[in-house]
Write a structure and sequence with these properties.
alpha/beta; Aminopeptidase; 3-stranded antiparallel beta sheet; 10 helices; rod-shaped; binds zinc ion
């Protein structure tokens, strides 16, 4: 910009003004240059962008922390939601109108509303102790399907799933084994008895060399030959639930031992609480093997839910999971010592009548043990 007018002599006047960027250069007639830097109200878009980014990251961080906190409770919450659905379905089909028309379909595990509803309906703790016994283990392979699969592994897999499902529902679970280890039948029973277990379920798959006398496929539940009511209830509840999960055939509750109705599987003989031995299909049957593979999770659900139902049915716990029974549930009509001595007595009497000879109870016991050992392929 130029000033053309002539100012008074001796007075400084501006000859030129230039602006370069933020700087204003004022040229005076006497050679002085005045430099003025504008304090330009610069908008620091870069800094704003960084600030916004930081804010975003901060919010993201808070959200992540929130998520990780809720994650620590996530397994509980989701399992509650799941089990609530399952229980509702079960109670809807099995019982008449205990739970009204509450539809658990719109379940969002993260939503506070639904989870609190689930907590209200689903007990967090069930004061029930259950012994789960996966048959066989280690060098005791159990049955085999000829395809490289062994009973000891398959029953352990299901048993661990049953354990997890029961634990999620607040049941105390005692496992006779949790890995591919060997444990004697006697030790299994001792563990069940001393742990205070109210119920004991031994999980097996059939199909040994001593072929199912009742057929070639399907599920079966073995119960003590004295036909104790509690044990029968446990076995029947499990079979009913397995039926819903899908089995090739349900042979129902059988008493005694495969091929020896007056003998017992040790788990049903030497435990004091209601017990049963479940055979989850035959490993010699392709259909059963296929069903087992596709349904094993459903089988685990079925067994876990049936066990809890039995705890309620037999008055050990209330529907809300609180304990009703003061002590360990004892099977009426089944006691290892009693059963043994009665059997011994009966056999002794028979032998006395037949041979007119005095038979020692110890010898009889040895014979009983031999019988057990000869037929241990289940
Ligand atoms: Zn077995």
């Amino acid at each position: 910009m130029e000033y053309s007018s002539t100012p008074p002599e001796g007075e400084r006047y501006v000859v030129n003004v230039e602006r370069r960027g933020n700087t204003k250069y004022t040229y005076y007639n006497d050679g002085v240059i005045k430099i003025t830097r504008f304090k330009k109200k610069k908008i620091y878009w870069g800094r704003i962008a960084v600030a916004v980014l930081l804010l975003f990251l901060l919010i993201l961080g808070i959200v992540q922390i929130g998520k990780s906190i809720s994650k620590s409770k996530k397994s509980n919450v989701t399992s509650k939601a799941n089990t609530f659905i399952f229980d509702s379905e079960e109670s809807a089909s099995a019982e008449t109108a205990d739970k009204p028309a509450e539809t658990p379909t719109a379940k969002a595990p993260s939503a506070d509303d639904s989870s609190s509803k689930a907590e209200a309906a689903e007990p967090q703790t069930r004061e029930l102790i259950v012994c789960i016994d996966p048959g066989h283990g280690d060098i005791d392979l159990g049955n085999a399907d000829g395809d490289g699969n062994f009973e000891k592994d398959q029953v352990l897999e299901v048993a661990l799933m049953v354990r997890d499902r029961l634990t999620e529902k607040g049941v105390t679970v005692v496992m006779t084994r949790e890995s591919d280890t060997q444990i004697s039948r006697t030790d299994r029973c001792t563990l069940a008895n001393t742990s205070g277990a109210d119920l004991c379920v031994s999980i097996h798959r059939g199909g040994g060399d001593s072929v199912y006398f009742y057929g070639t496929s399907g599920v079966i539940a073995w119960v003590n030959d004295h036909r104790p009511v509690y044990d029968t209830t446990l076995a029947q509840n499990i079979l009913n639930a397995l039926d819903e999960a899908g089995v090739s055939q349900d042979h129902g509750v059988y008493y005694g031992y495969d091929g020896a109705a007056d003998s017992n599987y040790e788990i049903n003989m030497s435990t004091v609480m209601p017990s049963c031995q479940i055979e989850l299909g035959s490993m010699l049957c392709a259909d059963d093997n296929q069903l087992f593979i596709s349904n094993k999770e459903a089988y685990a659900d079925a067994i876990a839910n049936a066990v809890i139902k039995t705890g309620v049915d037999l008055g050990v716990i209330a529907e809300d999971g609180t304990r009703k029974l003061g002590e360990q549930l004892i099977s009426e009509g089944k006691n290892s010592v009693t059963v043994n001595s009665q059997e011994q007595l009966q056999q002794q009497t028979r032998e006395q009548q037949e041979t007119q000879e005095q038979e020692q109870p110890q010898q009889t016991q040895e014979q009983t043990q031999q019988t057990q050992e000869q037929t241990t392929s289940y």
